Amino acid sequence: MRRQFFFAITLCMLLSASFGKLYAQESVADKLLAQAASLFTDKGAEAHFLIDEEGVNINGKLLMEGNKFYFDTNEMQVWFDGKTQWTAQNSSGVSEIYISEPTPAEQQSVNPYLLLSNYKKAFSAHLGLKQKGLQEVVLDALNDKQELKGASLTIKDNGELKQLTLIFPDMREYHIYILSFRNGLTFQKGTFTIPEKKLKEASDVIDMR
Question: Would you say the pTM of this structure is higher than 0.85?
Answer without folding.
Answer: no
